[in-house]
Design goal:
By secondary structure, the chain is of the alpha+beta class. About 35% of the residues lie in helices and about 25% in strands. It has two domains: about 1-40; about 40-90, HU Protein, Chain A, CATH 4.10.520.10. The strands form two sheets. Strands 1-2-5 form a three-stranded antiparallel sheet, with helices on one face.
Length: about 90
């Protein structure tokens, strides 16, 4: 399913035009993106929890020499987006 499919379903369900439904869907995703950029946790009951966590700094290994060390990039700690589904959406 792509964004246009979501727009179509919202328009059909609410009885509004696709243009209005697109504004709602795009606005919803924009709000979610801004919240995640700000490090906020998004909890949607019955759907799941979206959040940003920092990954630990990785350890790199040179396959030629076998040297192991902490690399500045690209293994450095970085943000990772995670989604924990609710029990009603994870297929249990």
């Amino acid at each position: 399913m792509i964004k246009q499919d979501i727009v179509q379903r919202v328009a059909d369900r609410l009885g509004i035009t696709k243009v209005k439904a697109a504004e709602v869907v795009v606005g919803f995703f924009d709000v979610m993106k801004e919240a995640l950029k700000d490090g906020e946790r998004i909890e949607l009951r019955g759907f799941g929890v979206l959040m940003v966590k920092n990954r630990k700094t990785g350890i790199g290994r040179n396959p030629k020499t076998g040297e192991v060390k902490r690399w500045a990039r690209p293994c450095a700690s970085s943000p990772a987006r995670t989604w924990n589904p609710s029990s009603s959406t994870d297929g249990r």
